[in-house]
Design brief:
β7 (203-204) and β8 form a beta hairpin. It contains 6 helices and 8 strands. By secondary structure, it is an alpha+beta fold. The protein is elongated. The protein has 2 domains: 6-101 and 180-198, Glycoprotein, Type 4 Pilin, CATH 3.30.700; 110-172, no CATH class. Pfam families: AMMECR1 (PF01871).
Length: 217
């Protein structure tokens, strides 16, 4: 089974820095394969709890090299919930790469474990008679401190449902549960990796991207 690795997170940072340079990233140091995947960017400043800056991926298998390259940029620059990440934010960023595995159909909306399973829900909106769907990665519910019901209810709202949530409606939801392997890397760890393996610091337009970096982008 393919697992998320340090090199995958490095490749996402490489891809984002290459974008700011109008260049291509170095070749990835991991083998290709076909798996569903997500890229999540968070920003941590002054020792605060990291806050989400972008998260986009695919629930369908795709080539992971091109997938991480595409979603590193899409999640950083085109997650419509957030403004695009600017290069000056790089020293505060952390990147989490996720590879999704073990898809299973749940018996009902309670048939999953907090902290272990991610969820895909599908249901018919009773007010508009349209299908809605949404997903949470496995770490979301535990990070938020949610139980089963709160997780499902917030996921229904994420899917675009604004009506009354009843027990009868919850029982009509089709739930697919899945697991994931993930790897999280802060920019400081990426900086150390690049220095150790490439002998220098990442740079944008010739300016090393270290603490205090201010490119004006």
């Amino acid at each position: 089974m393919v697992v998320a690795t340090e090199e995958m997170a490095v490749y996402c940072f490489d891809t984002l820095i290459a974008h700011y340079n109008g260049d291509q990233p170095p070749p990835p140091a991991f083998e290709d394969g076909n798996h569903p995947l997500f890229v999540t960017w968070k920003k941590a400043t002054n020792g605060s709890e990291p806050r989400l800056r972008g998260c986009i991926g695919t629930l369908e298998p795709r080539q992971i090299v091109s997938g991480f390259k595409d979603y590193a940029l899409t999640s950083a620059l085109r997650d419509r919930r957030f403004s695009p990440i600017q290069s000056k934010e790089l020293p505060t960023l952390e990147c989490t790469v996720s590879i999704l595995t073990d898809y299973e159909t749940a018996e009902d909306y309670l048939d999953w474990e907090v902290g272990k399973h991610g969820l895909i829900i599908e249901f018919t909106d009773p007010d508009y008679n349209i299908r809605r769907s949404a997903t949470y990665l496995p770490e979301v519910a535990s990070h938020e401190g949610w139980g089963h019901v709160e997780t499902i209810d917030t996921l229904m709202k994420k899917a675009g449902y604004n009506g009354v949530i009843t027990e009868a409606l919850r029982k009509k939801i089709h739930v697919t549960r899945y697991q994931s392997t993930l790897y999280t890397m802060h920019y400081g760890e990426y900086l150390a990796y690049v220095k150790n393996n490439r002998g220098g610091a990442p740079a944008i337009n010739g300016v090393p991207v270290v603490n205090g970096f201010k490119p004006g982008h």
